[in-house]
Design brief:
This protein is mainly β and 782 residues long. The chain has four domains: 99 residues, no CATH class; 333 residues, Alpha/Beta hydrolase fold, catalytic domain (Rossmann fold), CATH 3.40.50; 180 residues, Galactose-binding lectin (Jelly Rolls), CATH 2.60.120.430; 103 residues, Sandwich (Immunoglobulin-like). The protein is 12% helix and 32% strand. The protein has eight helices and 43 strands. Strands 8, 9, 12, 13, 17, 18, 19, 20, 21, 22 and 23 form an eleven-stranded mixed sheet that branches. Strands 24, 26, 27, 29, 32 and 34 form a six-stranded antiparallel sheet that branches. Helix 4 crosses helix 5. It starts with 5 loop residues before the first helix and ends in a 5-residue tail after the last strand.
Length: 782
């Protein structure tokens, strides 16, 4: 999250305007009149690029990057005063730069031509019951505040943070389900008398007070409490002030640790062993039935909390996780826990919507029996889910993160805008928070259509149209063809070309698959957007079906009796180069009878989403659902094939996850899968190149192969690259060989630690996911 006021615009503009060159060792460019400058110096076999800003970089969720000659060369290290950004890169462009700029999610500006788009949103299904209607219970407050330096977090290199929360306790009988909220990254401190803010200090300096971001979800808290839930909303300003500077992962681990620390405190309060906490919490908390909601970087934090929890000897019963407009810097998977990812279409902060990877990466990450959903809220921005970041509601400076208020699609001032008002976005956010926990923790199935249905691909929630992708629990799903790679049961005929693809713009050559798009505009492709710290890890393998004439794709149905399922489903989106496209969907039974419809008749997936430019329109796969109740012309007890044939003269469509499904919430809890970790290593380097052996380990052997990805972060002697690693059944380790460039001869540089991480595992969950390759450069032989 960030404070979208004029200062960031000025900082970006100032950084973009600089055109000085400095490539001699230890040279620094002179300052511009506004105080902005940059420099480039040799660093081993690469270059250290430094960008100095005239003021503190504003707090936002996305990770800052540096672009050389208009192209991002990597995620930047941020100085403690938030005015200096540094990247070490081997990119040859850094040898002779013409511009050095601040970048976010790979983008430094520019535009793209408009495309054909939906003139109106798809007709949604019936409105669902309003989950924010007040319940029967009254609640009392049991807030606690143990001080601004009550905790130290290993994930923050031991820096101190607050232990503070707002708590709602209903007067319902017995132990109650617990919902924990974690706000995202926003300015930590402000001066109410002047309106000034401080981004970089914790505790707040004299004259400044903490911004109460943890009160930004009070509406959802009050609703849930009225239905019998204990709600705890945690303050994380101390993490926000220190995460970019003092963590490997922009605070993801620290936020997860913060959630578990609060759970430990609540467990003590539940047993009457927490002095200073309200006695109303004693014997009130059902800590075997816990849901976590996190906004923005808080979304990454609650995913990490669920993973950390799974590693405990006696884990808490975390049964539901809702990442709201989340970041996902390092591609973590979360099997075994029902999860709903909520994405705002007009997100101007995390505009690449990398949180989509939580859904994409977890679909087949392990055998489980839970609901997964990804929801795209049309017209929502990033900030307005939190009332404390919203104009007219906030105690401190705030703003609209979309920033361009004249943008015809998402600008608040544009006559053609699809934007929700702040009040409407508050309502849809509260609806999804309350609805998900009431569905999963409270088993109120009336709210299931908000997340997954058996028809259509969109719903109306309050004033919002919300597009859906969902994967039903395994017990209610028959996967006909995941469409992630070649399969014997999937055949192509005629002019149809079926190319399995992954990632974008050549990011993941190790996959062996072509890119799904050659575009470098990562803000337009949530499924393919490279994660900030796992930029080369293969993203979202799927089928790109294209045609210039008649043809078809046929998938055989191995389990012929599909009568117990509620719908035939497939995820689909028109590709980014086709002005129009449609496919005919046909099912055939054992007697040769068939029945057909078109994807466009079932959903709006075959019409591009609205907008133009570098961030819009989004290419986002919707779940197209054909209700089984409509299949009256075939025998659903003996179905043999599903055929997708061309319904337009030409076109291109992305397809994934052909299945028969019945929507359900499922049931899960802490994952029992093995935990995978990455270990530190050291390598001696002389004047010739060598390699470093990086070891992955499992907490216990697996009965099936464990697959994961290793990503190196770019530096002077190690390039950014990714490897797919498989640990065979019964084994507990595997090794990746990482190339290391030669060092300089005289004098050798000091030992340098380069980051390496493990990401996107299948059949295991992440434990320690960051490590160091320490390069010891030796002097040349005499």
């Amino acid at each position: 999250m960030h404070r979208w006021v004029r200062s960031l615009q000025a900082a970006v503009a100032a950084a973009a305007a600089v055109t000085m060159v400095s490539t001699t060792p230890a040279a620094a460019s002179p300052s511009e009149p506004d105080g902005t400058s940059w420099s480039v110096v040799r660093a081993g076999a690469g270059y250290q690029v430094t960008l100095r800003l005239p003021r503190q970089l504003d707090t936002r969720a996305a990770a800052p990057e540096i672009a050389v000659n208009g192209k991002s060369v990597g995620v930047a290290h941020e100085s403690p005063d938030r005015r200096t950004l540094t990247v070490v890169t081997a990119d040859p462009a850094a040898a002779h730069p013409s511009t050095v700029q601040l970048a976010w999610s790979g983008a430094v500006g520019g535009s793209a031509p408009p495309t054909t788009q939906r003139s109106m949103m798809p007709a949604p299904g019936k409105p669902t019951p309003d989950p924010t209607t007040a319940g029967q219970y009254h609640s009392t407050r049991a807030d606690y505040n143990l001080g601004d330096a009550a905790l130290t977090l290993p994930g923050l290199r031991g820096k101190a943070v607050e232990e503070r929360a707002a708590v709602w306790v209903p007067d319902a009988p017995g132990k109650r389900p617990v919902a924990i909220f974690l706000h995202g990254r926003y300015t930590p401190c402000y001066d109410a008398s002047t309106g000034n803010v401080d981004e970089a200090h914790w505790p707040c300096l004299a004259g400044f007070a903490p911004i109460p971001s943890y009160h930004g979800f009070d509406q959802a808290a009050e609703v849930l409490a009225s239905h019998g839930y204990v709600v705890v909303s945690i303050s994380a300003n101390g993490v926000n002030a220190q995460d970019n500077q003092d963590s490997d992962d922009f605070g993801t681990l620290a936020r997860g640790q913060l959630v578990l620390d609060h759970l430990d405190l609540l467990a003590k309060a539940n047993g009457g062993r927490a002095p200073g906490l309200s006695p109303s919490l004693r014997d009130k908390l059902a800590l075997d039935n816990v849901g976590l909601m996190g906004h923005s970087r808080g979304g990454a934090g609650v995913v990490k909390a669920a993973l950390l929890n799974a590693a405990l000897p006696h884990p808490y019963g975390i049964r539901a996780v809702l990442p709201l407009a989340p970041t996902d810097f390092d591609r973590e998977t979360l099997p075994d826990v029902p999860m709903a990812v909520v994405l705002p279409y007009c997100d101007g902060d995390v505009f690449d919507q990398e949180g989509q990877h939580y859904y994409e990466d977890t679909r087949y990450a392990g055998p489980d029996n839970v609901l997964r959903a990804s929801l795209l809220v049309m017209g929502a921005d990033h900030n307005f889910f939190n009332t404390q970041w919203t104009p007219g509601d906030a105690a401190a400076p705030e703003g609209d993160d979309w920033q361009d208020e004249n943008d015809p699609t998402c600008g608040l001032d544009a006559p053609t805008t699809i934007r929700l008002t702040a009040a409407q976005q508050h309502q849809v956010g509260a609806s999804y928070i309350a609805g998900f926990f009431r569905l999963v923790l409270g088993r109120e199935n009336a709210f299931l259509p908000m997340f997954a249905g058996n028809s259509g691909s969109a719903v109306t929630v309050g004033a919002a149209t919300v597009l859906q992708e969902s994967q039903s629990p395994a017990s209610g799903r028959l996967d006909v063809a995941p469409l992630q790679g070649r399969a014997r049961d999937v055949q192509f005929a005629g002019s149809v070309t079926g190319a399995y693809c992954a990632s974008m713009a050549g990011r993941s050559p190790q996959s062996g698959l072509p890119s799904c798009t050659e575009s470098a505009l990562i803000g337009k492709f949530p499924s393919f957007a490279p994660a900030s710290l796992a930029s080369n890890v293969t993203a979202s393998p799927m089928l790109h079906l294209s045609w210039t004439g008649a043809g078809a794709m046929t998938a055989a149905v191995a389990e012929h009796d599909v009568s117990r399922y509620a719908a035939l489903t497939i995820r689909a989106a028109i590709d980014d180069t086709s002005p129009s496209a449609d496919l005919k969907l046909t099912v055939t039974d054992g007697a040769g009878r068939s029945q057909s419809t078109t994807l466009s008749a079932l959903s709006g997936a075959m019409t591009p989403l609205p907008g133009a430019g570098t961030r819009l329109p989004k290419t986002w796969l919707e779940s197209v659902r054909w209700p089984m109740s409509d299949l009256t012309q075939v025998d659903v007890h003996d179905l043999r094939s599903v055929v997708l044939s061309t319904a337009t003269p030409s076109g291109g469509v992305f397809l994934s996850d052909l299945a028969f499904q019945t929507a359900a919430a499922g049931a899960g809890g802490p994952s029992a899968l093995p935990r995978i970790s990455i270990e530190d290593t050291t390598v001696d380097v002389g004047t010739t190149a060598t390699t470093a052996a990086v070891r992955l380990t499992l907490s216990r052997p697996s009965r099936v192969p464990v697959v994961a990805n290793v990503q190196t972060l770019a530096g002077a002697q190690i390039a950014a690259a990714a490897w797919r690693v498989e640990i065979p059944p019964g084994r507990t380790s595997a090794t990746v060989v990482v190339p290391v460039a030669a060092g300089t001869t005289s004098p050798p540089p000091a030992d340098t630690a380069y980051k390496v991480l493990v990401a996107a595992p299948a059949n295991a969950v992440l434990d320690r996911n960051f490590a160091n390759i320490t390069v010891h450069n030796q002097p040349a032989a005499s």
